[in-house]
C-alpha cells in the first residue's frame, strides 16, 4: 500500500539510533523487524511517498501506530523558538524523523547491548541473540526474544553472542522480568520520574540507557537521552541551558532533531 506523508523519512529514522533492526535490503528499500512482525518499505530520496509491503489491515492494526502516524510533528516544530537558530536549523535537517512506538522490552535489552559499542556491532549482537533465543520467522529471520526465552539460555550462551560484560546485564534483567518481579505493564503505569528510577534499579542500566528506553520504548517523549555527542551540542550551543520547560512534553523530539544535525556534521 502507498502512504503519503511529508513528515516520514525512512532513511532519517533508520539513522536516528532508535532501533537496531532496520536494514537496508536494496536501493531505497528497508526491512523493519519489530517484535515478531516484518515490514518491507520503499521510499525514494526526498519523496513524501512510501510504499509499504503490507495489507491495509496490517498497516492499520500495527504499523500505523508503530510509525506514530497520528502525531502532528509539524505542530510540534511550531513550538520552536524562532530565535533559536540552531534548533530551527536542526529541525529542518531532522524533519521526517518520528519517535517509533516500539516494544519496551526490546528497547531495554537492545540499549543495554548498545553500551560502548558502535552501530554495526550492536546490530550484530541483536541478531545473534534473536537467532539464539527468538521465534523463527519466515525468510530465515527471527523475532526478538521474550524474557522467558532469554532466561532459558545461560549467561555463557549469551556470551557467545559477542555481548561481553553485557551478557550478565541481560541475563539478570531477563530473570527479573521472567520471574514477574518486573513487568512492562507495571512499568507503563509509572510516571516519568518513577519509571526512570525503576529502570535505574536494574543491573547495568545507567541514565542514558534508561532515557533511551523511556523515549524509544515507552514513548515518553519528554525524555532527553544525552550521550557524548549530545553533551557536546549542549555545551557548544546551549551553555546557558536548553529550554526544557518550553518544549515539554516533546523534549525527546527536539533531542532527535539536535542529534540529526550533529550526525550530519560528523558525516
Structural notes for this entry:
The chain contains 15 helices and seven strands. It has 267 residues and is an alpha+beta fold. It has two domains: 93 residues, 2-Layer Sandwich (TATA-Binding Protein), CATH 3.30.310.260; 113 residues, Orthogonal Bundle (Endonuclease III, domain 1), CATH 1.10.340.30. A five-stranded antiparallel beta sheet has the order 1-5-4-3-2, with no helix packed on it. A two-stranded antiparallel sheet has the order 6-7. Helix 11 packs across helix 12.
Question: What's the CATH topology label of the largest domain?
Answer: Endonuclease III, domain 1
**What does the radius of gyration come to?**
18 Å
What percentage of the residues does DSSP assign to strands (E)?
5-15%
Q: Count the beta strands.
A: 7
- State the helical fraction: 40-55%
Q: Main beta sheet, described? A: 5 strands, antiparallel
| Global structural class | alpha+beta
Describe, in short, the structure shown.
The chain has 267 residues and is α+β, with helices and mostly antiparallel strands.
